């Protein structure tokens, strides 16, 4: 009898050898359009920009696994999404509504629950939650947002160490070193590898700058869109490439070329930060990089462009640098995949590639994110899990970053706590279910006015319709995502949609209550 009880008890404990390893790679501000496999096949819900980007290693995750075309965030900025991934909760419950609030390290989180279930837990790269990480056996993180060249990393004893390398390479080296030399091979592992790239100010490695600076990048249809007929939030934002992207800091143009051109003249902050990040680039690369950037400066000096002409140039330079940063991240993914193959770990390792949100690559004339519009609300999600996910599958279910923690726990055989608000999509990965039983996603953005004057808003996104309420401006927007995937036509006053709109307004109130968001939102309730 005792023997049988013992056997039953042992069966209830997930065996370590069965628990898959998980490598969760998250880049920063990497829009799905800047991943080859999304770009070429087009994102289901919006017109993809046709970009000259080749990301063979990210594409490989999709080809051997699953690509999600409807993965979204619930609050499109960095710290809030990171807190959501850790807790499986929306911002109003996990406490991180903006990029400034420190995360409460005593909270129960995904890594803590995995650690309890026998995993070794690791975090390498961007953290950006203003308190030191907890729940990880090993961690090393950037101070704040991190820098590209001559990266600094905070170690577990709170020292800041400088590496004379490019951030993407440093993180790759640290991750491989942990996998090769530090892990306990008798335990499964959970590694969060969080890149700096391709976050602003998009400083590439020289070898990729050489390639992309020669490219001519196609322009999105709405690059020159004006604000005529648009709502208050559209008019009020400061994320315009023409008006808000800086020539010296963002586009790396030496101030000397534009000091005497009144409408292009940089301010003293820009000049200071230009010299700071230039000095971080190692000398052997800096000279050649400055030559490439000098071409930009000379062109401005000669032509003194304004308006459309200036926007056209700024867009090209922005995208060259952004795509060059992505190319380095793709190489890093390749190194990780190769190590998993060579070491024999690949078969029992789930690899996830995602970003902390989408990013404007010139649509509406913008950069940055924050808006509930699909460009920024959508995030890429590629998952490879050999033997479990059918190679080359594409899934269109609505999924959200609140679902990531429940899914990883489920994959590890750990019970999902009922305080998590997301749903596990493990059964989608394994092909047992095509869709989650949830018809709409909740979204709420808070941070204002910094950095980009995006008016706070909330809303719900269904597969076909999206309703947004900019509550401090008391303005509503409604989009038909099938008819208008780039969200150019606000249908809020169109008679034929009034029944849908009324239904969704009621739904928004219900969903807000369902997620226990009790903070008022203008005249919503
Ligand atoms: C910085 C950027 C902003 C960006 C925020 C948040 N300005 O402040 O453009 O929106 O980070 O980014 S910069 O001049 O310092 O680059 S996030 O990814 O951390 O949310
Ligand atoms: Ca980000």
Structure description:
It is globular, with a radius of gyration of 23 Å. The model is unreliable at 5-16 (pLDDT under 50). With 525 residues, the protein is α/β, with parallel strands linked by helices. It has three domains: 17-201 and 323-438, Alkaline Phosphatase, subunit A (3-Layer(aba) Sandwich); 223-317, no CATH class; 443-524, 2-Layer Sandwich (Arylsulfatase, C-terminal domain). The chain is 35% helix and 14% strand. The strands form four sheets. It has an eight-stranded mixed β-sheet with strand order 5-4-8-1-9-10-2-11, with helices on both faces. Helix 8 packs across helix 13 (307-343). Strand 14 and strand 15 form a beta hairpin. The N and C termini lie far apart (60 Å). The chain binds 2-deoxy-6-O-sulfo-2-(sulfoamino)-alpha-D-glucopyranose (SGN) and calcium ion (CA). Calcium ion is lined by residues 28-29, 78, 199, 356-357. Calcium ion binds at residues 28-29, 78, 199, 356-357.
Features:
525 residues; Alkaline Phosphatase, subunit A; Arylsulfatase, C-terminal domain; 8-stranded mixed beta sheet; 4-stranded antiparallel beta sheet; 16 strands; binds 2-deoxy-6-O-sulfo-2-(sulfoamino)-alpha-D-glucopyranose; binds calcium ion
